[in-house]
Amino acid sequence: MASGAFAEAGADLELVGIQKRFPGFTAIEHLDLSIPAGSFFALLGPSGCGKTTTLRLVAGLEEPTAGSILIGGADVTQQKAFQRPVNTVFQSYALFPHMTVLENVAFGLRRRKIADPVGKAHEALRLVELDHLAARKPQQLSGGQQQRVALARAIVNKPALLLLDEPLGALDLKLRRQMQLELKTIQEEVGLTFLHVTHDQEEAMTMADTIAVMNKGRIEQMGAPEPALRELPKTAFVANFLGQSNLFTGPVVGSTSTSITVDIAGHRVLVPADRAHRHAGEVTIGVRPEKMWLHRKAPVEAADRNVMGPGRVIDVSFSGVSTQYLVAVPYIGTLIVFAQNMAFGPVADVGDEVWLDWHVEHGFGLEDEPVPGAGPRFAADTDTRSIAAQRRESLVTELEEA
Ligand SMILES: Nc1ncnc2c1ncn2[C@@H]1O[C@H](COP(=O)(O)OP(=O)(O)O)[C@@H](O)[C@H]1O
Ligand SMILES: [Mg+2]
User: Which residue ranges does the record assign to the ABC transporter domain (predicted)?
Assistant: First the structure.
């Protein structure tokens, strides 16, 4: 793909103390965000958390209630949408049906009386590898191709900042994955700043250099997809929104320079001190399901492993390469374990008594204040509840009756 004249530098984006209130509803509480020029930045969060509102503020389609927006160091808060060096690609890519692909891309340039609109449109189409279809009408293209035309139409304006609002939402899974890789390649080639909004964590992980996880109008955590966000989630929301986690709450009952010991319903669990945000009092700690091991016999105690159990397998489900086990452990709750599928079939069946363990080094401790009275198995709120988060009492009762 040629970049040529389109390889114009991107610009920094800075949001400072942004708040957005709609009549009767605060969509954004307080947002500080700094996106370096030339980066691929993803804003990731569930539906309704304020992603589109954030983009509309940056694009100048909404006015912030408080705060300021800087693009390339210049304060654009008071600028009208058309004055900002920003282009947006929305989920529904409305192309003009009566115009050819080429004319769709050249349209904005013509209207703004930019020199050589046709040459520039061809160059943008070459970038998205669609120049050979320049003479077609949009309805003669597939969904993915139409989306690439929409992208070419945005890039042709050489925006310092490209805003993408769930632009792949209308595509089927295979096309989505393909377009994710293409978008990433295009961004690297043109060097523009991309602010990509999505509710799909896999999409964000695939494409972004940096991800900001947004929840209820706030950014909960920001960082590189790996290792920061996956390895060391700060909040229960992040721990369950990017993949799943087993979370537990209990008091810190001991600490050394290298680890803390937490009492989880009578189980002593160690977490490396440098992976725990809080070192005293009630804390919430966690471990990823893929880091846990299932055993049919009580594992021999070892200083570098945490053990829980015995518990009982209450569900086994295969999903291609791995098997997911739900294990109910009395007084703790239901834990989720992913095990790689070996040649031998399941390690355990429903009803089996099992123990779980994991390497101390794989645990993490959250910054979140534990919810008082929530019990040792920390249940995330309803929006983010993992499949494993269950009602503890009913399971304990169930086990006792079994
Ligand atoms: N014009 C508006 N008036 C009132 N509430 C709005 C308006 N636009 C968005 N909202 C509310 O703000 C919240 C965030 O919306 P939005 O930014 O579209 O979320 P997302 O894109 O993350 O799904 C939602 O609860 C939505 O209903
Ligand atoms: Mg939205």
Answer: 13-241
* Ligand 1 and 50: CB distance under 6 A: yes
Three state DSSP letters for the chain? CCCHHHCCCCCCEEEEEEEEEECCEEEEEEEEEEECCCCEEEEECCCCCCHHHHHHHHHCCCCCCEEEEEECCEECCCCCHHHCCEEEECCCCCCCCCCCHHHHHHHHHHHCCCCCHHHHHHHHHHHCCCHHHCCCCHHHCCHHHHHHHHHHHHHCCCCCEEEEECCCCCCCHHHHHHHHHHHHHHHHHHCCEEEEEECCHHHHHHHCCEEEEEECCEEEEEECHHHHHHHCCCCHHHHHHCCCCEEEEEEEEEECCCEEEEEECCEEEEEEHHHECCCCCEEEEEECHHHCEEECCCCCCCCCEEEEEEEEEEEEEEECCEEEEEEEECCCEEEEEEEECCCCCCCCCCCCEEEEEEEHHHCEECCCCCCCCCCCECCCCCCCCCCCCCCHHHHHHHHHHC
For residue 169, the ligand closest to its alpha carbon is: 2
Is the pLDDT assigned to residue 387 strictly greater than 90? no
Counting ligands in written order, which one lies closest to the CA of residue 50?
1
Question: What's the Cα-to-Cα distance from 5 to each of 10, 90, 139, 382, rounded to whole Å?
Answer: 13, 24, 29, 49
Mean pLDDT of 183-194: 87
Quick one: which ligand is closest to 22's CA? 1
Residue 204 Cα, ligand 2 centroid: separation in angstroms? Answer: 15
Using the predicted structure, report yes or no on whether residue 381 has a pLDDT greater than 80.
no
As a whole number, the mean pLDDT across the chain is 86
Q: Which domains can be identified in the chain, with CATH numbers? A: 4-228 (3.40.50.300), 235-401 (2.40.50.140)
- The residue to mutate among 25, 28, 51, 215, having the most atoms of ligand 1 within 8 angstroms of its beta carbon, is 25
51 lines ligand 1 (CB under 6 A): yes
User: Is the shortest distance between the CB of 257 and ligand 1 below 6 Å?
Assistant: no
Closest protein CA for atom 17 of ligand 1 = 50
* Least confidently predicted of 209-223, 226-240, 342-356: 342-356
pLDDT per position as a tens digit, 107-164: 989 988 999 999 999 999 998 889 999 999 999 998 888 988 998 898 888 888 999 9
